[in-house]
Structures are given as C-alpha cells and as structure tokens.
Amino acid sequence: MPALKRYCLALDLKNDPELIAEYEAHHNAVWPEIKKSILESGIRHMEIFRIENRLFMIMEAAEDFSFEKKAAADENNPKVQEWEDLMWRYQQALPTAKPGEKWLLMKSIFRL
C-alpha cells in the first residue's frame, strides 16, 4: 500500500451551543455524495475533532492528492456546493483566514 500524506486543518464554529449540536448532527449523517467526493479526491481517511467551537481535521490522502484539484472538483459539484453552503451556516473563519478561506492548514511543530 502506498504511503499516505497527512494534513491537519483547523476551523471555528459559531459559538452557539444549538448551532454546534446541529453541525454535529449533520456530521453523524453526512450525505453519500459528500463521502463519495471526498474519497474520489484521493482522501483515504478523515476525522474531525471538536473542543468548544474549535474544529481540528486530520486527513490522510494519496500521494497525488492536491487541494487545488479537490477545490476545482468541488466547485463543479452542485451537491458539494449545497453541503458547503449549509455548513457555512455553522462555521466561521479563523481570525487569520483570508477572504474565502475556511479550513486552514496547520503546521506540524512536534513529532515523537
């Protein structure tokens, strides 16, 4: 099995317990089309963790995975766009995000 690349990303949710509960409910029933688009992009494993309103995503992807290719495929997929619009109801960009950025790639600073 080829080696996978690992990416860690962060994003905030709006700090509202009701919205956070709804967001988690959506992620307990992710649409099949969304799962399919994730797998087709080369992502093999994905987990999202939450502490209060901060989200942390761990992705493991094939060597040929590209954020640019995934973004282009997502832009041309109406179901993914519908999901992203729905999720944005709950999400808010990190303070350092540029306009239009959502999930921000984190830098690894320690490994044991």
UniProtKB/TrEMBL annotation:
One family name in Pfam for this protein: rhaM
Single annotated GO MF: racemase and epimerase activity, acting on carbohydrates and derivatives
Gene3D superfamilies reported for this sequence: 3.30.70.100
Superkingdom of origin organism: Bacteria
InterPro entries: Carb_Metab_Mutarotase (IPR052996), Dimeric_a/b-barrel (IPR011008), Rham/fucose_mutarotase (IPR008000)
This protein's name: L-fucose mutarotase
Organism: Niabella soli DSM 19437
